[in-house]
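Q&A log
Question type: sequence-to-structure
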Amino acid sequence: MNHLLTTDEQRHHADLVHRVESAWAGTAADWERLGTLPDDVVRWCADEGLMGAALPAELGGGGATAVRTGLLYEALGRVSASLASYVNVHGMAAQTVAKWGTEEQWREVMPGLATGKRAAAICMTEPGAGSDLSTIGTELTERDGKLVLNGGKVFITCGELADVFLVFAQRAGHSTVCLVERDNPGLVTRPMGELLGLRAAALAEVDFRDCVVPERHVVGRDGFGLSILMPHALEHGRHAVAWMALGMLQAVVSEAAAFVAGRRSFGRHLVEHGQVQSLVTRMGTDLEAAKLMCLAASRAVDDGARDASDRILMAKYFTCRVLEEHAAQAVQLLASRGVLEAGRAARAYRDSKVLNIIEGTTQIVERMLAPSLLRTHAKKGL
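Response status: OK
Response body:
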């Protein structure tokens, strides 16, 4: 991938990888047992400027390009999918407010979000509303001249760490979005444990019990929630997930390659066995292809290309899919070492399945991409 990056982008990426790995590569496995990110990790993300890196400079952010943002998630993914997810969900919420918020919301909320001194979570999923968010039951209603929010959300990434929540709800039959502060008396969060993956991402159930929401905290117009704000947030998330999956894949391939290069079996070097050669070849080739797809997606975003959304979907679809395949193969190659909880391969094996579900399952992405790909190739062929 380096040959496709500018010199500045190469230096930026190398610096990111060094900073993240030197700070946390040795302790990331411990976070899984804690079930959350430690306070010093959360502070580090803010102090290093990661939380607002992609936000517009005029709102206090770093104004990073899509390529630089992607390289950030790749570096985070090498160390911990939970760490990358923390930065991602904050970005999904903050970018939505930055794009569709009012000047009053920018003055009130954006300074904390841009600096990372306040963390945001995004509340979409409910027990009866996952891939089909049109069935959201959380309601924002008018009562005695006030807006009152009632309902419940589940699988809210970093819900235990967030200071402000971007909540998708229904209001008088229209989809709407509002901001709810952590200190709202009607807001209750409960940790969700015993998860397959993203074990350190502080997932939570979030209940809203007669939460009074100021009108000034409604983001965008009623009816915009599912048609405009949700796609905007998910596109940011899909872009991030594709790149963090790439970082995880790089870590998995590196761990497996180092093991294969130094191991002997049945009197021969492990790499001399034909089956191992096949696995290593597929891993390496898919890794290179994933790099190209992620970079192409980010370049399309930066160039304002018409097919940028499709390229993001394809990058997420391909990279997450091959990550799941090769994380499983890496565990197999590493054998007894592969099933150790502290190993990156074992964590990637669990986390990869989750990445194929969040921000649009594999099947949902196929449903979204197929019509576009058919139109494109029916007209142009190769």
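Response note: The chain has three domains: 2-115, 120-222, 226-380.
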